[in-house]
Amino acid sequence: MMAKSFRILAGVDAKTALTRIERLLTIEGVGFEKMDFSIRSRSTPIAILGVQPVLYSRQNWFGLNPFVFISSISIIVRSKDDDRALLDVSIGRLRAYVLAMLWTLLAFIVGKAMPQPAGTLLFIGAAFAGWLGFVSFMAGYLVRNEVSRAVR
């Protein structure tokens, strides 16, 4: 549950796909090590304040760097028969879970100070928004979208 894995069929060959992924990870600030036909992250960028440039990106439509919200990424590139690459991508989402839990904890503290049932509704809404925002959207959809766009 902490890790999310998916496959992407690239529109280019394996060597070109690997080069494009390296460029994407370098632009987004991910430290990585490259093996033969695989890439594994050594470090992902961390943004503590909202004014840090590493939090923002021009690589996607949302404007945020999704690699800030994941703890690791591993990509294995395989060559298919029709001269296209097949990518096996695995994302470690521990950081997204921690952020969602902190978001929910903050909503719990604020919700306790509010009159009921508004405090309960705030807590439930924040927990739902934290899960959808950090775990599903940032550490799932946006990472997949960026890797897919890089290898088209």
Q: Architecture, according to CATH?
A: 2-Layer Sandwich
User: What is the spatial order of strands in the main beta sheet?
Assistant: 1-5-4-3-2
The helix/strand order is EHEEEEHH
Structural class: alpha+beta
Overview of the structural elements:
- The protein is of the alpha+beta class.
- The chain has one domain (3-150): TATA-Binding Protein, CATH 3.30.310.
- The protein is built from three helices and five strands, in the order E-H-E-E-E-E-H-H.
- It has helices spanning 14-27, 94-113, 118-150, and strands spanning 3-9, 31-34, 38-43, 72-79, 85-92.
- A hairpin with a 3-residue loop joins strand 2 (31-34) and strand 3.
- The longest helix is centred in the last third of the chain and has 33 residues, at 118-150.
Key descriptive features of the protein:
single chain; 152 residues; alpha+beta; TATA-Binding Protein; 5-stranded antiparallel beta sheet; 22% strand; elongated
Task: Describe the structure in brief.
Helix content is 44%, strand content 22%. It has helices spanning 14-27, 94-113, 118-150, and strands at 3-9, 31-34, 38-43, 72-79, 85-92. A 5-stranded antiparallel β-sheet has the order 1-5-4-3-2, covered by helices on one side.
